Amino acid sequence: MKIAVCVKQVPDAAVTKRIDPATKRLDRSGEAALNPVDANAVEEALRIRDASGEGEVVVVSLGPEKALDALRKALAMGADRAVLVSDDAAAGSDLVATSYALARALERESADLVLFGQQASDGDGALLWAAVAERLRRPMISQAAELTFENGSVTGKRQTEFGYDVIRASLPAVVAVADSINEPRYPSLKGIMGAKKKPQDVVTLSELGIEPDRAGSAGSRTEVLALSAPPPRGDTRKIEDDGSGAEKILEFLAEKRLVQ
Amino acid sequence: MSRAASRVRPSDYPPPFSPAEVIAAPTDPSGERIEVGLLVVGAGPAGLACAIRFGQLLEESPETAERLGDVPVAVVEKGAKPGSHLLSGAVVNPRGLRRLFKGRLTMNDLPTFGEVHGEAVYMLTKSTAIRLPPPPTMRNHGNYVASLAQLGRFLAEQAEESGAAILPETDAQKLLVADGRVQGIRTGDKGRGRDGQKLPNFESGSDIVARITVLAEGTQGHLTGAAISHFGLEGAHPQLWALGVKEVWKVPKPLGHIVHTLGWPLRKPARYGEFGGSFIYPMGADLVSLGFVAGLEYRDVEFSVHDVLQQFKTHRIVRKILRDGERVAWGAKTITEGGYHALPKRFNAPGMLLVGEGAGLVNVPTLKGIHYGVESGILAAETAFRALQRGESPSRPGALDGYDEALRSSWVTKELHAVRNMRQVFDKGFFVGGALASAMTVTKGKLPPREFSSEPNARHALMKTDRAKSYPAPDGKLTFDKLSSVFLSGNRTRDDQPNHIRLERHVPRELAELWVNMCPARVYELGDADGDGTVTVELSPSNCVQCGAITAKGGRLTPPEGGSGPEYTLA
Amino acid sequence: MTTLVFLEHHEGELQKGSLGVLGKAAGLGHPVSGIILGSGVEGLAADAGRYGAATVYVADDLRLEAPLPQPRVDALAQLVEEKGIETVLFAQSILSADIAAALAARLDAGLNWQLVDLEEQDGVLVGKQSALGDSVLVDVGWTSTPRLGLFRAGVFDPVETGGAGTLERLDVRFEEHSLLAEMLEQAHEETSGPSIEDASVIVAGGRGLGAPEGFGMVEELAKALGGAVGATRAVVDAGWYPYASQVGQTGKNVSPALYVACGISGAIQHKVGMQGSKVIVAINKDPNAPIFEFADLGVVGDVNQIVPKLTELVRARSS
Predict the structure, then answer these.
(1) How many CB atoms lie within 10 A of CB C288?
(2) Cross-chain Cβ contact C306/A249 below 8 Å
(3) Confidence band for B446, pLDDT divided at 50, 70 and 90
(4) Are C184 and A169 inside 8 Å of each other by CB?
(5) Residues A244-258: pLDDT tens digits?
(6) Which segments of A49-185 are extended strands (E)?
(7) Partners of residue C135 in chain A, C-beta under 8 Å
(8) Contact call for B74 and A192, based on CB within 8 A
């Protein structure tokens, strides 16, 4: 089975994230790391490949050249090949533009399964799997906590607000995995050292046949207008318990309609 | 103020640890060992300079590169990335870096915040600041302000370009020694739980074997300490350390010059053993790096460098500098302070070289060691290269002595020699020490002639005064508590790891208090009294920023799982 | 400006979150319609009208029975194109997030998510997005129509306007790929309570509980409130509660509607894991605990007295 995993490099959680007031975009100049839940997606892909004894795991990303670092971590874990769509014209892409570019890159791969991590820690790129599934015109399963395969289909168990669902989709399919699906492996030293030698392609938007008006800000349909400090949480009330603390809490919860 | 003195000394309660544990023979089957040519342990300025210089030499000698196999040079680093565990002021003397990059890069190509434009030295009391002429040892003309974490990242990129494999998130747990020679290192396991059990994603450590291993671990080097012990390389006097805690602030008004202070909040009388001072360095137009450094020979169990730093910030001259500013980074690390007298008697053993701060190469009066690290790294690379030529054997006894000769005759050793008694005299207290220090500077180390000795940091008897009363309560704007500071260091260490700190857990209360206050990251807490005059020390090892202070004061820091600890970017 | 609100339903009831968004949209002053998709759901149309929808579109089809996103994308896309709808709004849920994103791709329409508010500024629709762990509020806009907006769960409370919406039935033409996913088992309750990430109420315990036994009462309160149990790093380290319940920088990130912090000091390592909670109640005997700086209601007192009493009161109220 050929599995493509879409991964993203996000600003390191260790660095205080900030939005650059000049560009109004997330300041990505700091150190960057593989989006944590993408490691779960890579891990799942590797397990699927290793269980079947054959197949290929390709990691795909859209980002600046240094996103190769994130891709290399996936290669160090055991992925076979990396494809980076890197183009200055892609900067500032929103969901519409990003999903379009990723879908074109994925079409070239013709994977049986496309995996995403369910959430990007930097906020962008969240929900990408659904948009990409739609562009590829393939079925999707999100929030997957367990995956099994039968001939021609994939079955996913996922937790929702109401309990768990079991959904089966015909392959090729797009699946977004939750971080509860597995524990990503640590790259071995041999893996880290061998990563650089694995094939890494960098492609531009024009090589994918993407028209300039469908990329970057031009290809986006949303925009950032202004930034401001979040409203303060509101008045904090602090009271001493004089024996009626519990009652006061209940009153408060009732006021906020948090209890019947 | 109570001057209760006890006879409790941290060294009376040694941790359950023996350097011999760190030495081992290779255990992986030979097919599974990772083989490299030159192995460098630690991606700091010394280790990276060594890797870069070695790469330069290999460029000119492709046959040597061939003979070293697939991976001629590898640098292992326990932090998440190169730079993650690097912390310094820093004002860098460019001498070593210029030599390293001669003909390729100039200082303008390196990430720095520009040259030093003037400096001021103050003697502080609680309310006053008296300007002193900078002692000759503190003149910084021609030096550059830099963030060592940033510089480390840059040097790592250079090392990669020169052909080195950089392996971050890789801790060196053991030094591989067999047949009387150093053969490489064993890296640590990953994916063990709190009780040492193997978690589902457990990954065993590996043996990395190398023709030559360069230990560039910096302060409190784990393998370095064990190697010095194993090969009998101890110097004439015990090694000493200071603890530095620093912050980086974003400020609206740029600071034009660098500042050093002596005096308050440290106490002058010799019996307290409080030696150190502060630094405040401008980093470009909108950042300021400031820190407090204090020798770890202090006696008072309530002494806390982090809190002294917070106290220091309340002085009017510091308030002025930080006005309307915002704290953006924090970190802590020990600094090797033994100087010339504590240098190991040899810097090499069969198959091994010691470079940088781990080898004791820090100039205490000038607070500089980065340039020594770089220079020693260069010399080590050159020796290693020669020893790996056809017909040479690097593990032959004496094969690497060329490094010692080069280092001993270099400007590094000359400078260390000139200031060799500077640090120890301050054991006598500030005033006496200050006078002696001046005498030394003026006579370039020739007077006074006797060698002053110093006790190891852990051997000083403890006392308790009410020092903690003077620490400011954290206000979250100018002064901060330890936990929120640890957060700002980027520390996200996995919690359910085995404890990496070796410590005697049942100790007299004063000793427990010493550790609780000493640790800038609040790793230690007072537990229950044990009923026989001792208390239990509780630990939160995942707070640890691996500063190394505990090793100087009665415990032993070992490297936790690779990738743990702080992620400094501006330190 | 025509606005359509996707109304999610479960077990015969329209979801509170969707109704809240409906009320918000109606409050903007333009005609608002709602859409209900499922099988045997016509009866829900009346509720939609009562909560603000002037028109209620209903597509009743067996192929919409299972709560799967892609057939719903077909319905919405069709309606948007047929009626020239300019704005489509959703309340966050696992289902609606998938629908909104896929619809954005289908229509090449801008989608802004994590919205906490919506305004009209000089006739232009502007969304308020809470970003970067709630540390910054971003004004976001759309550069074309249709505009898609996904609101954070529970930001608006439903408001009964007492209206009646006009019912319009919709016949959906499904795309081939939309029918390639099949629901085999749906909404099975797990025997344990909600997982901490999905819980809308979390009762969490810290060192202030005094002893591991303190978690007994934390669990009771959680059960009474229908929520999950959380724990701080300190107590997990000490072995009082499992790591899976740890909330914080190195544990889980949660943003429930209600977070009750029992004996928790509120150090930043914990705060960053739960500061997105809509309402925070803290009980701690230390009046200087940092948690009181950001709790909506802080009670300085003994958790061992207050928590069991609160549990009793909650139980009494719901019976």
Answers:
(1) 10
(2) yes
(3) low
(4) no
(5) 999 999 999 998 888
(6) 56-62, 81-85, 113-117, 140-150, 153-160, 163-170, 173-177
(7) 17, 230
(8) no
* pLDDT at residue B432 greater than cutoff 60: no
Residues of C in contact with A134 (CB under 8 A): 70, 73, 101-103, 105-106
Q: Per-residue pLDDT for B5 more than 70?
A: no
C177/C37 Cα distance (integer angstroms): 18
pTM value > 0.80: yes
* pLDDT reported for residue B430: 47
C chain contacts of residue B492, beta-carbon cutoff 8 Å: 249-250
Q: Is residue C140 within 8 Å of C118, Cβ to Cβ?
A: no
Interchain CB contact of C181 with A (< 8 Å): yes
Its ipTM equals 0.90
Looking at CA atoms only, how far is residue B51 from chain A in angstroms? 16
Amino acid at B283: M
Range of the domain at A117: 2-214
pLDDT greater than 90 at residue B356: yes
Residue B540, pLDDT > 60, answer yes
Number of Cβ within 10 Å of residue B356's Cβ equals 34
Chain-chain contact of C236 with B495 (C-beta, under 8 angstroms):
yes
- For residue B503, the SS3 value is coil
Ranges of H-type helices in chain C? 16-27, 45-50, 69-83, 94-107, 214-225, 233-237, 268-274, 303-318
DSSP E strands, B309-412: 326-336, 348-349, 352-354
Q: Do B493 and C250 touch (CB under 8 A)?
A: yes
Number of helices and strands in chain A (H, E): 6, 13
Chain B contacts of A78, Cβ < 8 Å?
Answer: none
**Cross-chain CB nearest to A137 (options C142, C177, C294):** C177
Please check whether residue A84 lies inside any domain of the structure: yes
Residue B563, SS3?
Answer: coil
pLDDT in tens, C243-267: 889 998 888 888 888 999 999 999 9
Q: Which two tokens stand for residue B138?
A: 């503190």
Tell which B residues from 534 to 553 touch C, by Cβ distance under 8 Å: 540, 542
How far is the alpha carbon of B569 from chain A, nearest alpha carbon, in Å? Answer: 8
Chain C partners of A160 at a C-beta cutoff of 8 Å? 67, 94-95, 187, 198
Residue A149 lies in a domain: yes
In a domain, A35, yes or no: yes
How much of chain C exceeds pLDDT 70, in percent? Answer: 97
The CATH number assigned to the domain holding A162 equals 3.40.50.620
Q: Is residue A248 part of a domain?
A: no
Find out whether C214 and C232 touch, Cβ atoms under 8 Å: no
pLDDT in tens, C43-76: 999 999 999 999 999 999 999 999 999 999 999 9
Q: A145 or C190, which is more confident?
A: A145
Question: Which segment of B109-113, B428-432, C158-162 scores lowest on mean pLDDT?
Answer: B428-432
The total number of structural domains in chain A stands at: 1
Any CB–CB contact under 8 A between A166 and chain B?
no
